[in-house]
Amino acid sequence: MVRHKHHFKIAFALAIAAGSWGVYWLPQRILEDGGLTGGWGTISQMMIGILLLTPISLWRKYKGRTSGLEIPFVGFLTGSGFICYALSFLLTDVVRALIMFYMIPVWTTIFEIYFLKKRPGLERVLTLSLALGGLWVVFSQSNIIPLPQNAGDWLALIGGVLFGAGLVRLEISKTDGVFPVIFSFFVYGTIFNIFAGFILKDYLGPMPPIEAFASMFIFLVLISVFYFIPTGVVIMWSPSVLGAGLCAILYLSEIVVGVISAGILTDETFGWREVVGSTMIVVGGVLAVVLAPKEEK
Predict the structure, then answer these.
(1) pLDDT for 144 beyond 70
(2) CA atoms lying within 13 Å on the CB side of residue 196
(3) Where are the domains of the chain?
C-alpha cells in the first residue's frame, strides 16, 4: 500500500473521530434517562441509521451504483463487532469490556500477516507495544489480566476479533465510495443486533414503551446525523487508505478521551496511571503515523 498523499490529515481526522467515541457515554446516559435502557438505545441508533440512509441507498441503486447490500461480509464483520462490544457492557464491567475489545491492534496485525502476507517492521512492534502498554497502565489499578472470565468478556473479545477482521477486509475491499460500507455496517449490524438481542433478551430487559422511543426520536436523529454517521464514515473509510494496523492503533484515542472526560465530568479517578497510560497511547499513535512505511510491498 502506497502512503496516501493526505496521510497525516486522514490520520488526524481518524484520531478525532475515534476519540469522539470517548464521550459516547454521555448520549448513552441521556438515552437511558429517557427510558431506552438495557441496550435498547444502541438498537434504536442502528435502526435510525438505516432509516436515514435507505433513501440514499435506493437512489444509488436506481443510478446503477452499489447500495451497500452487495458487501455483506464487510457489514457483518464490522457491524457485529460493534454490537458485541456495545452489548458486552451489559454482561461485564466497563473496564473489562474496554480491555478485551481494544486488543484490536493485535488481531489486525495477525490478520495482516496471515491474509495479506505483510511483515510488520520494528516500527509496528514499537508502536503496538506503546499503545497496548498504555492501555494496560490506564486500567492496571484493577489488576486485570486480559483473559476472558465471563460471558461479557468473551463477547467483547469476540467483538474485537470481528471488528479487526472487518478492518483488514476494508483495507483490501474495492467499494464505490464510503457510502456502501457505512450502509452495510448499519444493515448487517442491525440484523446481527436483532439476533443477539433475542439471545440476550434476559439482559436487555423488556422493550421500552413506545412513548420512550417517541420522546427520544429527535435526539436519536440528531446524534445519528451529527455524530454517529459522520464519525462512522471516517472510521470505516480510513482502513482503505491508511491500513488496518495503523487504524487499529489510532482507535485507542477513544480510551484517552474517555479517561480524560470521565475524570473531568464524573467522580472517576484521574491520577498518574491515567496520565502515563494516555501519554503512551498518544505517543504510540503519533509514532505509528509518522513511521508508517511510505510503501508496503
Answers:
(1) no
(2) 28
(3) 7-290
